[in-house]
Design a protein that fits this description.
Blueprint lengths: L2 E5 L4 H5 L4 H10 L5 E3 L7 E2 L4 E2 L1 H14 L3 E6 L8 H20 L4 E4 L13 H23 L4 E5 L8 H11 L4 E6 L10 H8 L3 E6 L1 E6 L18 E2 L5 E6 L8 H10 L5 E4 L7 H18 L1
Parallel strand pairs: 1-2, 1-13, 2-5, 5-6, 6-7, 7-8, 8-9, 9-13
Antiparallel strand pairs: 3-4, 10-12, 11-12
Helix pairs in contact: 2-3, 4-5, 5-6, 6-7, 7-8, 8-9
């Protein structure tokens, strides 16, 4: 049975309002989280601008994890490995290597990095663009997996954004990278961002999955919500457009949106996956309430299927 935890990203609004990451870990334990993912929004473990690790906070997080019995499951950072300038791309690889160092200092065995900028313009998200830039994706992902191997860390790429998303694209990337310590972070909701059926896509990718994000969305036809939302904001309850513009999406509490969460969790269980999963709440409700109800819902469905 896979463990169900909480991502610190779920509590972003609370963190930005003044809650520190150690208090978030206490909260996660209180609501029944069985693992905890670190996503450094609202706090910093490696300062990209200064080139400095926050050794004190890293140590405090490790100590807190041990003290309250809340295992750390993953460290996830943004990235853009498709910079056209080779020197800029090299610097991005080196920056992400520092974040792999953070994962090692935390004692983690998983670390997610993005491949493409989340804010990549839609007009460059075509299948032809994907084919043209595919060799660059493979080369850079291989470089980071090879760097992480010294620590025994598995690097993962998430079905995230609008470019490196969709079951067929991420499976192709996994197959081409061909590293034993490289896999997929399955976000069960993000496939709908590129109009993939989330239930079908989850079935396709499960054998490549090393980590899971559990989220839910409200899904509406765009013509039913005119002049609402935009492309890129997906947090704090904002509506945003799917890749084709056909749908408007908004984060919901897990189990209260329009995705078939029960069927997706059954697919996860039937696959034999026994790694960690974390609730990733992106709704407009208070993060404490959304996170707690999401963890409870995930456990309910996992027990029911």
């Amino acid at each position: 049975m896979f463990s169900i935890g909480l991502s610190s990203y779920s509590m972003l609004n609370a963190i930005e309002a003044g809650m520190n990451i150690l208090d978030v870990m206490d909260f996660a334990k209180e609501i029944g989280a069985e693992n905890f993912e670190l996503v450094p929004f609202g706090y910093t473990l490696y300062d990209d601008a200064k080139g400095e690790f926050d050794e004190r906070l890293i140590s405090a997080i490790v100590e807190k994890s041990e003290k309250i019995g809340l295992p750390l499951s993953n460290y996830a950072v943004l990235g853009d490995l498709l910079k056209p300038d080779p020197d800029a791309r090299k610097r991005e690889i080196e920056r992400l290597e520092k974040h792999i160092d953070v994962a090692a200092k935390l004692g983690l065995k998983r670390m997610r990095h993005d491949v493409s900028s989340f804010r990549r313009p839609l007009e460059t998200n075509t299948p032809l663009d994907f084919e043209r830039e595919f060799p660059m994706m493979v080369e850079t992902c291989q470089a980071l997996a090879d760097y992480a191997a010294q620590y025994g860390i598995t690097t993962t790429v998430e079905n995230h954004g609008f470019f490196v998303n969709g079951a067929d694209r991420v499976i192709r990337l996994y197959d081409a990278v061909d590293r034993p310590n490289f896999g997929l972070l399955l976000d069960i909701g993000n496939f709908i961002c590129v109009e993939d059926d989330c239930c079908v896509a989850a079935q396709k990718v499960m054998k490549y999955v090393k980590m899971i994000h559990m989220k839910d969305f409200y899904i509406r036809r765009t013509d039913a919500l005119p002049d609402l939302g935009g492309l890129f904001r997906c947090d704090s309850g904002c509506w945003f457009s799917s890749n084709s513009g056909r749908y408007m999406l908004r984060g919901s509490i897990l189990g209260q949106g329009d995705l078939d969460i029960k069927s997706i969790i059954k697919t996860i269980k039937d696959s034999g996956y026994d790694g960690p999963a974390t609730v990733e709440f992106e709704g407009m409700e208070a993060p404490e309430a959304g996170s707690e109800m999401g963890v409870k819902a995930a456990k309910f469905f996992a027990a029911a299927v």
